[in-house]
Amino acid sequence: MNPLNNQVYPVIWHNDAVSLIDQTRIPNEYAFVEIHRSEDMARAIKTMIVRGAPAIGVAAAYGMYLGAREIQTDNRDRFLQQLEQVAAMLRATRPTAVNLFWAISRTLKVAYETLGTVDDIKKVLLQTAQDIQLEDLQTCRLIGDNGLKALPASPEKLTLLTHCNAGALATGGYGTALGVVRSAWREGRLNKLFADETRPRLQGAKLTTWECAQEGIPVTLITDSMAAHCMKQGLIHAVVVGADRIAANGDAANKIGTYSLALVARAHNVPFFVAAPLSTIDFELASGSEIPIEEREPTEIYQVGDTMLTPVSGVEYYNPAFDVTPADLITAIITENGVFAAGELALSRERQVQ
Questions:
Q1: Dmax over Cα atoms in the chain, in whole Å?
Q2: Could you tell me which residues come within 8 angstroms of residue 209 by beta carbon, excluding any fewer than 6 positions away?
Q3: Which residues pair with 221 in a beta bridge?
Q4: More exposed terminus of the chain, fewer Cβ within 10 Å: N or C?
Q5: From CA 38, how far away is CA 175, in angstroms rounded?
Q6: Cα(20)–Cα(47) distance, integer angstroms
Q7: Kind plus residue range of the DSSP H or E element containing 65
Q8: pLDDT in tens, 161-212
Q9: Per DSSP, which regions of the chain are E strands?
């Protein structure tokens, strides 16, 4: 599958199974994990073999099909009851990324609305997962092009800053924030990209720089604490990040450290953009205070590989994986349907309905 001329696809349906790029092994190894069971898909999402809100949604949709395939009954009602159990298992993997819940809800809706036999429902679930994947590829290209139009008009060659990884690895294969970067590079508007290291899991260092290196996009790695210095030196023209969930008022949850980056950008009058598909907007939540924040294992902050970074005892740990950037710090939210002020997301919903 290569509909958008990009070679990195984190989720691939092949030979009646799902192949996932093992993102925990990049950049040292470019390897795939083959998934045959819904339980294994849930584990892959939980352990971040696949990560990034849109990619998690795609993986979850395939996980729903794998779970449906495992159900051994021809009775429609029993099948749907067991499919609900698969959905519950997948929902429990990552609480913050709304695309996970969106994809599961979409596949369940299709299952309930499909007439015919249980086998007919299973076939439609596979097609739905493939549709979600292709739609995400197309959506990300639109986000990239819309974002290009929203970037500052000058200078002609921009230097952008991003946090975490919102690229091909985090989506169906093109990227949200990195989709904007790719579009800028394609049109000759990008000078270089600064990538935050993104502690504690180092997705910026491991994944974003790897993606850029694959395509020859100029990238400079900095630690998270260097962003303010770089902006003060006038090195950054705009910040573009992704999001795992956006509330109705425009508050946006993204990888931990995004909120502080937004504060630094505001202090230096640097535009701060959030790039995300409409499926990331949770209109059921009035504000970011209602977004659940995942807390992960403390090993991520006290250990790198087999190396301990802190004393063995006498230290407590707090490891939230996300923070919420208030809408008033966001210059605009870039979607496939256009670019909107954070407080005007209702317009994006209206345009989607039209």
A1: 66
A2: 27, 195, 219, 221
A3: 195
A4: C
A5: 25
A6: 12
A7: helix 53-70
A8: 999 999 999 999 999 999 999 999 999 999 999 999 999 999 999 999 999 9
A9: 11-14, 17-21, 32-35, 158-162, 190-196, 219-222, 238-241, 245-247, 252-255, 272-275, 281-282, 303-304, 307-308, 322-325, 332-335, 338-340
The answer to whether 310 and 302 have CB atoms below 8 angstroms apart is: yes
Closest alpha carbon to 86 in 122, 39, 133: 39
- For 51, the token pair is 């990560």
Q: How are beta strands 245-247 and 281-282 bridged, if at all?
A: parallel
pTM (predicted TM-score): 0.91
313: CB partners within 8 A, 6+ apart: none
Q: Is 135 exposed, middle or buried (0-12, 13-18, 19+ CB in 10 A)?
A: middle
- The burial of 302, by beta-carbon neighbours within 10 Å (0-12 exposed, 13-18 middle, 19 or more buried), is given as middle
Q: Annotated active-site positions, please? A: 244
CA distance 200 to 110: 38
Long-range contacts of 70-78 (CB under 8 A, 24+ apart): 70/37, 70/38, 71/118, 73/118, 74/117, 74/118, 75/118, 76/117, 76/118, 76/121
Q: Model confidence over 36-91: pLDDT tens digits? A: 999 999 999 999 999 999 999 999 999 999 999 999 999 999 999 999 999 999 99
Find residue 154's DSSP bridge partners: none
The pair of structure tokens assigned to 66 is: 């794998």
| 256-261 mean pLDDT | 98
Per-residue pLDDT, averaged over 17-28, amounts to 96
